[in-house]
Amino acid sequence: MDPSSKSAEDSTASCSKTRCYYVCGSIVPFDEDVTHEFKGHKNLSEEEIPPWTQIANTDRRTRGPVSKCLNGFLNNECGGTVYLGILDDGTVNGFSLTQFQKDHVRVSLDDLMERYHPPVEEHRYTVKFVPIVDKDCSEEDIERIVSYNSRRQTPHTLRDYKRCWCDQDRIAQFQSGILAARYVIEIIIKPWYCNDPRNKHAVGKMKAIPIHEDETGCVNFRKHATVVSHYNMQQLCDISKDMVRNHYEPKIERLRQEIRQLRMSHYHQDRGGDTAPSSDPSDQTSVRRLG
């Protein structure tokens, strides 16, 4: 979403005086890639996938839980965003959500992150409900604020594909002629910052990003615009080795350069600056004449 957009006609995601919004039916100006994923549903966990998504006589389903994408973003240092309510072709569709249903998404996401191993700290993710408006929607409608209600404290039914009380409430509102606002739900996994003191599960002295298992015990990684899962132990070991190598190789190279500079400096002092040792590590005994 581009906050710098000037109007709803110029771009899918626009900004009013106080908030950003999407335009219904338009196409977002970006594609799925290593940090962006579109989902047309909001089934976060494995348990929320309805049984009717199972393809007959196969072990495949027509949809997978959002959790796999979130887990893949968590296991990549760059993080990423899942856009719930944007279809695979980039069309803005969204969901009609009451305040109660938005609360449900938040508590369901928190519950999911707590079930990961290791659990995901709250500062590493966030969720935004970005309004969807029609092209002819007035500024007054865009700025409308949803009122608070004490019923929001009622516990929600989690880890279930069946409707929660908040879903029944939205149906009742619709039958009464009250239309709930539509939203795109952006679940943002933030990039990994190794020096953040809130990181309780940073690995070792290098403070490496932890590899999280999702609620089913699987480990997922984001590769380009897809999620790769079901890594075995050897693959995870190889990934860990690569992380360590990528972390320490620049430091090792800097130390090598410092050693070469020190050798040259000492050689100048001993020989009066006439010659210097070769910088070629394969021939440490050779020297070259300085111009």
- The figure for the number of domains is 2
DSSP strand count: 11
Q: Specify the overall morphology.
A: elongated
Q: Based on helices, strands and strand pairing, what is the structural class?
A: alpha+beta
Low-confidence stretches: 1-12, 145-150, 282-291
DSSP strand content: 15-25%
Largest sheet descriptor: 7 strands, mixed
Q: How far is the first residue's CA from the last residue's CA?
A: 57 Å
Protein name: Schlafen AlbA-2 domain-containing protein
InterPro entries: Schlafen, Schlafen_AlbA_2_dom_sf
Q: Can I get a quick summary?
A:
The chain is built from five helices and eleven strands, in the order E-E-E-H-E-E-H-E-H-H-E-E-E-H-E-E. It is α+β, with helices and mostly antiparallel strands. Strands 1, 2, 3, 4, 5, 6 and 7 form a seven-stranded mixed β-sheet that branches. A two-stranded antiparallel sheet has the order 8-9.
Describe the structure.
This is Schlafen AlbA-2 domain-containing protein. InterPro entries: Schlafen (IPR029684), Schlafen_AlbA_2_dom_sf (IPR038461). Residues 267-291 are annotated as: Disordered. Residues 276-291 have a biased composition (Polar residues). It comes from Ridgeia piscesae. By secondary structure, the protein is an alpha+beta fold. It has two domains: 13-231, no CATH class; 245-289, no CATH class. The chain is 27% helix and 16% strand. The protein contains five helices and eleven strands. The protein has helices at 67-74, 99-115, 139-142, 165-175, 233-271; strands at residues 13-15, 20-23, 36-39, 80-84, 95-96, 125-133, 182-189, 221-223, 226-228, 275-277, 287-289. The strands form three sheets. Strands 1, 2, 3, 4, 5, 6 and 7 form a seven-stranded mixed beta sheet that branches. A two-stranded antiparallel sheet has the order 8-9. The longest helix has 39 residues, at 233-271. The model is unreliable at 1-12, 145-150 and 282-291 (pLDDT under 50).
